[in-house]
Amino acid sequence: MKKETIFTLSAILSVALLVLIVFSVLFAGAADTYADRGSSAPTGNMKIISFSPSSSSSPAPKIWAISTLEKETVANAMLNSVDYYQSAEGEFTTTSLHDHQETTVTYKTDLTGGSSYQHISDSETDAEQFVKDGALTKYDNRTKSYSQSYVPQPYEPANKTDQNLEARITVGSDGIKNYYYRNDATHTGIATMSLFPQEMTFGLLSDTDLWEITRETGYLGRSCAVLSGKTAPSYGSKLNMERFTLYVDEATGILLKFEGFSKKGLLTQSIATKNISIDTDGLADRIDRFVSSQVSRDKYGSYTEIRRTGSPKLTIQGS
Q: What is the pTM of this model?
């Protein structure tokens, strides 16, 4: 009987020790996770959480808390999205460019270094553009032609106090609204539909009575705020769109998904991100190397220049 009692007591102690070890490991892991999140600091009417670059497959830290999110905070994040990331690459499709046919937009941008790439392709278009050291070169792969120009200086963060939605919409003496746009810090052009969605924000969100923040959801491994609403008649009539849904990345204000529907319920406008990486390790360097290596590829050597703006002359292979 004593042997059985001792064995039972020993078993209980062993189990207790195992439970203690498991809880110790879990507590240590939770502490490491909390430490990795970094500290938060308010900027204007937003909160940016400091964090180390992470893969787009894992949810990124958020600018806001969805439970207390105000409409103006979302709109301001979208209007100033370039202030919340340094580099990005990805691809999306859109039906908002050429007679509602699907267009694929591939992009790479390093805001700090000023390098970027964009490729637009559909049944009518096959165009690429590169930005390197302030020089913009565009290639039309259908006509085998190119053009050259210049872009503004590298990106600098904006002063948030005069970059919010309210401050950037004024009414002139003639009663017409004026919308103030920031320069395209991504140097991508069409890709700003997603990366820096100023026009969409002004067009769809300036009247905060017409839309709501409906929920929070995941999209491509990133946390998004979902906005749904009706379009103002003056804007919606131009796009044959009466209502819309937006998926806004909670870490950057980047627009990942957009659907616009007509009065009959037909999908008339859309953006659908297929893949995206934001501020992942070494991304900015990879983008810079890609642009440097691609801009002088042999295939462009036979292209004909159709327009030149600015000076001095830019040199590419074959010119």
A: 0.76
